[in-house]
Amino acid sequence: MIEEKVLKNFVGRNIVVIGGTGLIGRQVVDILCSFGAKVTIVSLDKIKVNEKTEHVFGDITNFEFCKNITKDIDFVFHLAGIKGSIEVTKKKPASFFVPLLMMNTNILEAC
């Protein structure tokens, strides 16, 4: 488990978890909320994973959207990916690589 002294740095902080509805993102959101962080989840999934969070539906391939969601934020956890099968990845690798590159670049530049 993450050391408690590290997690105490997140108390009362404004944190965005991009991909907060995913397998890893849900766990990160729960841990951050348990330490009193103010968490905003950004996702293309419209499911509510934690009642203590704000949920923003949006696409991080849009740079303006990325600038908006990172405004006045202390920390960003970027855990988003693209859903798909291994078969699709093999047949059309650029369909995964290009959007992932755009997402990562947008978040880095927006921060």
Automatic annotation (TrEMBL):
Segments forming domain NAD-dependent epimerase/dehydratase: 15-111
The protein, known as: NAD-dependent epimerase/dehydratase domain-containing protein
SUPFAM superfamilies: NAD(P)-binding Rossmann-fold domains
